[in-house]
Amino acid sequence: TAPYTLHYRYSRTIKMVRISSQSNRGGLVGGGKANSSSCKWKVATYKILVYIAMSSVCFYGGILAGMHASVNGVGQMEINVGCSQVGGEKGMPGESKKERMMQELVQKRYDEELMKHQLSKKNKQGTTENNNGDNPWADAQNAKFKKTTSSFLLGAARTTKESFMDVFEMGLPSEDIKSGGSDVLVLYQAKSSLPSVNHKELRESAIYNNPKNCIPSATADIVTESCTTMNVISTNPRDNQCIAIVGNYESYHVQKWMRLPETKGALDRSLPLRFVSRVQNSNGVNAVKVPMGKQSKYHWNMLGPFLDSFADSKSILDPILSRINKNKVVTVLTCNFGQSELLINFVCSVKSRGLDISNVLVFATDEETRDLAIGLGLEAFYDEKIYKDVPTDEAGVYGDKKFSAMMYAKVVCVQMVLMLGYDVLFQDVDIVWYKDPMTYLQNPNMINQDYDVYFQDDGNRQPRYAPYSANSGFYFVRHNDRTQYLFTALLYAGDAIKATGSHQQVLVGLLAEHSSLFGLKVKILDQSEDGFPGGYHYHNDHKFMRRFVKGETDTYLFHMSWTNNKVNKIKFFQQMGDWYVNDKCVSTKPQIILNSATYESKSLIAPCCAAEPLVSCHYRDKPSKIPCRDSQPIDNGGRSFW
C-alpha cells in the first residue's frame, strides 16, 4: 500500500545518501574498480553520482527546512498522531545528531501517513462520519476508552508542559519533575470538547487507537481549542499513588484514600484503602489539627478587643496611610521587641543601599518596638488593646506559643490596611533588600499584573502547603473584594492558627479554597529565577548560593526563612555580609541606646547602623561571603560551603 511504499522509498533515500558520502571519501561501497576500457560505464557512473548528489541535497534541504519550521516557528508545533519524539532517541553508534533527527522525522511522517491511510479506509466504509456529525463510538472495538466510561471520558491528547504553562498561566510554583513529567495529559469528556474537524487526524487519533497505540500530541491551544471548561489537576506522584475519575456529581475537591490504620501508624499494604485528610502523610501524621474548644475561646478573647477598637484604630491609621502611601501601596511589617534587632538590620541595610522606605509602616506589638521604629525614622502604629496578649520577647523556635501569638499580629495588620483601601506589601523583619521589590511587582514588563496576590515561593513541598507553597513572610496583595475577604477569613481562623502553630499553613489552605470558590488569582514568584530567594536556597541550593555570594544573580531581596530561631538568623546574615547592626543596639531599649530621657526626638540610625556590613564566620557548612573553613559545622557531617 502507499504508506509502506513511502516508508521504503524514504529508507532507501537515507541509505543512498550514506553510500554517496562514503563514495566521496573512498569510492563506491564494495571497493569495485572502474572499467577503464569502457567510457560508457564511466559516463554512466558519473551521471549516477551526480543524480545521487542532487537528490541528497534536495532531501537534506527539505528535511532541514522542515526541522527549522517545526522547531523555530514562533508558537508552532506540528500535530503528532504517532509516537515519535524528535531528538528523543540516542540512535545508532556513529550517527550524527542531524542524522538521528532526520530518521526520527521520517518515522514520524510514516506514522502519520499510515494513520491517514487507516482513516481514509474508515471514511470509505462510512464509519467515522455521517450527515449528523462524527460518531465517536462507530468503531467501538478500536476506541481508546470503552462505552462504559463514555459519560465522562471519550478521548485523550498530549501537549508539552512548557506549551501548556505558556497558554495557561496558573500561578503555581514551578516544579521540575525530573523524569516522565514533560507532557500534560488532556482528557476529553464530551464529543464537543474534542479537537475540531479542522484537525481531523488529531481528533480521530484522540478517540481511536493508532498503529502504535499512542496518545497524539499538539500545542496546548490546539488540544484545548474546543474546551469551553477545563478542570486542571496538578500532581506529583508518590507512595504508589493512583488517580480515580468517577462519573458523578461534579466535585472541585480531591478525596484522598490511604492504606493506614484507623488510629496511629504508617502505611500498611495489607490494610484496605480508607478516607483520610488530604494532608495525611505516609507515616500516618496529619499536620492539620482541628481547633479545640479552648483554642477557639482563646482566639475569641483576642478577637473581641480588636473588633471593639477597630473604629478607633481606623481613625488613627487613616491619616498615616494617607500620608505615607506610594501609589496606594503601603509596606507593612509587624514586630515585637524580641525581634527588634532584625527590624534595625532591615532599616540599616536599606539605608546603606540608598533605597526609599518612606511608605513603611511598622505595627508594633509593644511600646519599646514602637519607640524603636520611630527612632529609625519609620511610621509606627501601636494599640495596647489589640496587642495586650502578644508577648514582647522572641519565639524560642518555629511554631512555639510565642511564635503562634505573633502570627495573630501578622494577620491583624494586613487586614486593617486592606479594609482601609490600600494595596499591601507585607514582609517579615528577617529580610534584606538589594532593590525595591515594587519595581518588579508593579512592572508589567516583568510580571503579569492580573493577579490578586503574589507570594514568595517557600520551597516546602509538604502536602500541608499544597498546592501553592506560599511563604507568608513576603507577599503583595492588591486591594479588592476577593483579597479583603481572604484576610477577613484568615482573621476569623485564628483558632486554626493556634491549633496548627502555623499562620502559613492556614493561609495556604484559604488560598486554595478562595481560588477555587471565588476565583482569587494567586501567583507564586518563580523559585527557579534569581529575584526572591530565601531560606530554602540558603540551606538546600548551594549552587545558587555560590552565584549569589559572587554577585552573579539579579536579586531583589533575601529572606532568612527556614531558620529556627533569631540567634541563627543573625549568624547567617553575618556570614552572608548582610548584617549592619552595631552590638550596642542588639536587644537594647531606645532610651538606653541614646542614654537620654528625650530619646524620642533623636535618630537611632547613627548609633545603630554600621557604615559597612559586619562580616563574621560561624558555620563552615553554611553559605558565606568569605571562606569559613575553620568554623564548626552546624549540621552533622556538614561539608564546607567553600
General description of the model:
The chain is of the alpha/beta class and 642 residues long. The chain is built from 20 helices and 15 strands. The chain has helices spanning 2-26, 39-72, 97-125, 161-167, 200-207, 220-223, 293-324, 340-352, 367-375, 384-387, 401-419, 438-441, 481-492, 494-500, 503-518, 535-540, 542-549, 566-576, 590-594, 605-608, and strands at residues 129-130, 133-134, 155-160, 183-188, 256-258, 274-276, 329-335, 360-364, 379-381, 423-427, 431-433, 453-457, 470-477, 522-525, 557-559. The strands form five sheets. The protein has a seven-stranded mixed sheet with strand order 9-8-7-10-13-12-14. Strands 1-2 form a two-stranded antiparallel ribbon. It starts with a helix and ends in a 34-residue tail after the last helix. Residues 1-39, 64-77, 85-93 and 126-133 have low confidence and may be disordered.
Q: Care to give the gist of this entry?
A:
With 642 residues, the protein is of the alpha/beta class. The chain is 40% helix and 10% strand. The longest helix has 34 residues, at 39-72.
Task: Give the topology, please.
Elements: H1 2-26, H2 39-72, H3 97-125, E1 129-130, E2 133-134, E3 155-160, H4 161-167, E4 183-188, H5 200-207, H6 220-223, E5 256-258, E6 274-276, H7 293-324, E7 329-335, H8 340-352, E8 360-364, H9 367-375, E9 379-381, H10 384-387, H11 401-419, E10 423-427, E11 431-433, H12 438-441, E12 453-457, E13 470-477, H13 481-492, H14 494-500, H15 503-518, E14 522-525, H16 535-540, H17 542-549, E15 557-559, H18 566-576, H19 590-594, H20 605-608
Parallel strand pairs: 7-8, 7-10, 8-9, 12-14
Antiparallel strand pairs: 1-2, 3-4, 5-6, 10-13, 11-15, 12-13
